[in-house]
Amino acid sequence: MPRAPEGSRGIDEILAEARARLDRLDPARAQRAAAGGAVLVDIRPAAQRAAHGEIPGALIVERNVLEWRFDPRSDARLPVAGAYDLPVVVFCQEGYTSSLAAAALQDLGLHRATDLAGGFAAWQAAGLPVG
Q1: What is the pLDDT of residues 41-78, one digit of tens each?
Q2: How far is residue 43's CA from residue 58's CA, in Å, rounded to a whole number?
Q3: Which residues are paired to 42 by β-bridges?
Q4: pLDDT digits (tens, 9 = 90+) for 81-102
Q5: What b-and-e string marks burial along 92-126, b requiring 16 or more CB atoms within 10 Å of the CB?
Q6: What does pTM read for this prediction?
Q7: Helix 11-21 vs helix 97-107: crossing angle, to nearest 10
């Protein structure tokens, strides 16, 4: 293994720091949050959505453009993304990338951003609706 540069952090450390800031939601809580007005955001690539399915009603915003679509200051923001207090629940396939993405949204000022613990796989395993 190469020697890590001074001041660098490994992905496990970065992930732990991101998750320490989040009130991660289990599938049942995520479903209730969506019913209460939270925006469920699927950041998975098209190939994963095609292979595994989707959560009906979730907004699809692939990871590579997430910050631009949700930053209220961005000219590329989505119409739904005009407020910093918007409740956003990000999910990926298994709940790793979504933690990093939700922390990035918090860095933009979306203080209510979080993620779905276990991702789409946990949602599906809980027997919640998929399409």
Answers
A1: 999 999 999 999 999 999 999 999 999 999 999 999 99
A2: 10
A3: 60, 91
A4: 999 999 999 999 999 999 999 9
A5: bbebbbbbbbbbbbbebebebbbbbbbbbbbbbee
A6: 0.95
A7: 60
